Amino acid sequence: MLGEKTGKWTMDQAPQYAIDHVANSPKNLFEFEALDSLSQKISSFFGINSDSLFYIDLGITKHVFLLFFVSLITVSTLVALIQKYISNKNNIPSKFMSIIEMFVIYLRDDVLKNFIGDKEYRSWAPLVYTIFFFILFSNLLGLVPIFDLFGLVGKLSHIDSIYIFSKGGNTVTANVNVTFAIATITFFAFIFAGIKKYGFIQHWKNLAPSGLPWPLYFVVVPIEFMGLFIRPLALTLRLAGNMMGGHIALIIFITFIFSATAEIGGFAGLGIAPFSVSLALGLTMLELLVAVIQAYVFALLTAVFIGMAIHVDH
Amino acid sequence: MNLILTPTFGISFLFLEENAKGVNPLLTPELGTYVWSLIIFLTVLLVLKKFAWNPLLNFLDEREKEIASSLEMAESAKTDLEKIKEESEKILNDAKNEGKAIVNDSKSKAEESAAKILEDAKAKSNEFLDEAKSKIEIEKKRAIKEIKEEVVSLSLDLATKVLQRNINDDDNKKFVKSSLETMKADEAK
Questions:
Q1: What is the ipTM of this complex?
Q2: Whole-number Å distance between alpha carbons of A177 and B41
Q3: I need a surface site. Which of A74, A94, A193, B57 has the fewest CB within 10 A?
Q4: Residue A82 to residue B51, Cβ atoms within 8 A
Q5: Is the C-alpha dihedral spanning A107, A108, A114, A116 positive or negative?
Q6: What is the mean pLDDT of residues B111-124?
Q7: How many CB pairs under 8 A join A and B?
Q8: What sign for the dihedral angle of Cα B114, B119, B122, B128?
């Protein structure tokens, strides 16, 4: 993208190019007047002007567009498959459905029942399942280079409305704001779980173990309180960092070809191509694994935090 | 608002690459994206909860219950079958034994009755024999008596003829009488 601006690729552009691939698009994809005025109204309600870093811009950026896309795919795939599976009670599940069923049963038996409990797990299962599958679909969809293809088609055909889709990251879960939003829901979920079980006051009392000598509480309470906020922050940065890092490495491996071509010559680029493509291929395989693992970790930790709030035994 | 949010995203200022707003593009706080994420995720959560997870979990529970109950049923059917098998074997054995007993019983009864019949027959034949014997004896006695009487009359005739005289006198009468008595006495013997 920057190469397009300056006209010629140089080696120094590689990091910025990789970052641009992961970061959100700077401009809104669609210019919706209504959303812009809504953004301004909400922001001015909180006293934030449009120059501020925290201006609430509700415009559709690439990541917001991708969020809609991912949620549409997640919902339609899961609802269609599950409804089909349930309505044909005698049928064996399709291949894809049996994979989903495997995840669902595994999460239910080894995560939900284990950490939340045999009785309470039903009320938290939808949240944990949604977190797992939403993140899994986002991660996997981020690995599919649909928008790079759009960019290629847009550039070759000189249609800006298609080309604009290649600007900005492909992976919504590499955006800290998205992962922070999901972590926020986890945060409120485990606080709500504790309050629902023990009542408002007892839940906050549960934060620190009882029966300690009183001076220790001056240390324990701040630590536990910090831990409360560190949990969602760790969730946010773990997922976003993993997705970001994998994609940056993937792009850097690919840019080896262009850098070698620019610095040494066309044959050098051709020579390094098999090396960097096989590296990128291997990393993509690794990213497939990471996509599942990170979705699992997020769902697991959500279940663990909810379980910790419900079963207070320090 | 900035006072609260700046520390939260403050970590982003540690990075050197900065964009137009002076922040690392990888860690830019985009509150719009954050708000959209919340809205979209919660919508997805609600839709999936209603149309995917709750039906699927109910379905799985139901299926597991069904499997457990059918396993139980199979188990009970198995034990039932075993019981029935045992029972039928018992019945078969009983029937065999009973048959044997009946056969044995009837055999002994038959033997008994055969023996009895034989005995009866023997007794009857003995009876017949005895009767026949006694009849023969009587007949014999009668025949002997008849023969004696005949002999007497014959001898009387013969004597009359031989003597050619009437046996009206006393001597003759005495003689005849005594000889008759001796005959009677012989007969009585």
A1: 0.88
A2: 12
A3: A94
A4: yes
A5: positive
A6: 92
A7: 149
A8: negative
pLDDT tens per residue, range A94-153 = 888 899 999 999 999 999 998 988 888 889 999 999 999 999 999 999 888 888 888 888
What the block records as the tokens of A145 is 């280079």
> Which amino acid, residue A106?
Y
Q: Which residues, at least 6 apart from A3, have a Cβ–Cβ distance to it below 8 Å? A: A9, A10, A13, A17, A258
Inter-chain residue contact A23 with B40, CB threshold 8 Å: no
In terms of residues, how long is chain B? 189
- Alpha-helical regions (H) of chain A: 2-6, 13-22, 33-45, 62-87, 95-106, 121-143, 146-157, 160-163, 176-198, 200-205, 217-263, 266-310
Tracing tokens 């209504």 back to the chain, one arrives at: A34
Q: Which residues partner with A30 through β-bridges? A: A60
Alpha-carbon distance A58 to B31, whole Å? 8
Nearest by Cα to A133 from A97, A170, A160: A97
Cβ distance of A24 and B44 shorter than 8 Å:
no
What is the identity of the amino acid at A142? G
- Residue A245 in contact with partner chain B when CB distance is under 8 A: no
